[in-house]
Amino acid sequence: MKLLEIYNFLDSISPFSLQEKWDNSGLNVGSFEKEINKVYLSLDIDNELLEQVEPNSLIITHHPLIFAELSSLDFSKYPSNLIQTMLKKDIAHIAMHTNFDKTHLNRYVFEDILGFKDKNSTDYICVADGNWTKDELINIVKDKLGLEYIKAVNPKDNIKSIALMTGSGASMIDDVEADCFLTGDIKYHDAIKAKSQNIMMIDIGHYESERFFADILFKHLEVLPILAIISNSKNPFTYLNENMNK
């Protein structure tokens, strides 16, 4: 298939026009006239992924490889080092970021993974009403997202409403009307603000909450006459503990 055909299909299921103005979803590397032999799906692009990808392929990721303006291509620096490898292997790249958050990812994680029922989501934030104890909610999050540890802010014994935004959503706290907000990348001052506003927050991890991107998109691509391969990038974080070397 031509890359343009694939791009138009992606646009039909999650319009690129929905992306935020600061985002860089869409074609990051390549040409619309390029013939694509295989499609690889991943949260991000890293060196390990590029070693697996065959020449004349397309990588579709959630996060754009190119975010900030590139004033030069220094092949010793990220992301230019990855772009160099992609150019040598004739690999194209399309990102589906904030547009896919709005149309698919947030609701999928909230309903299909965590098992909550979204009552009235905005573009980003899903909300459910119910009745959970602190321990019940923490166990659901740990089990469904595969988290070994939980970092929480302002824990409450009883929770009657839950909100979620995958990835890094703490900046959206003023739009949250719930007892507990689930999101990733919670910073110190986000925690101070949440505690002041009496909102419980649980850090569900950026990678951990968005790693389902490839699985969701794969189901849509099955109708296309081209092989799609789920080949997710690795979590860049390593979690250490005192028993690791014992």
UniProtKB/TrEMBL annotation:
Domain of life: Bacteria
Subunit structure: Homohexamer.
Listed GO MF terms: metal ion binding
Residues involved in a divalent metal cation binding: 62-63, 101, 206, 210
Keywords attached to this entry: Metal-binding
Classification via Gene3D superfamilies: NIF3 (NGG1p interacting factor 3)-like
Matching InterPro entries: DUF34/NIF3, DUF34/NIF3_sf
One Pfam family from the record: DUF34_NIF3
Protein name, UniProt field: GTP cyclohydrolase 1 type 2 homolog
Membership in a protein family: Belongs to the GTP cyclohydrolase I type 2/NIF3 family.
One of the record's GO cellular component terms: cytoplasm
PANTHER family: GTP CYCLOHYDROLASE 1 TYPE 2 HOMOLOG (PTHR13799:SF14), NGG1 INTERACTING FACTOR 3 (PTHR13799)
SUPFAM superfamilies linked to this entry: NIF3 (NGG1p interacting factor 3)-like
Coiled coil: none
NCBIfam families attached to this UniProt entry: YbgI_SA1388
Keyword Protein biosynthesis attached: no
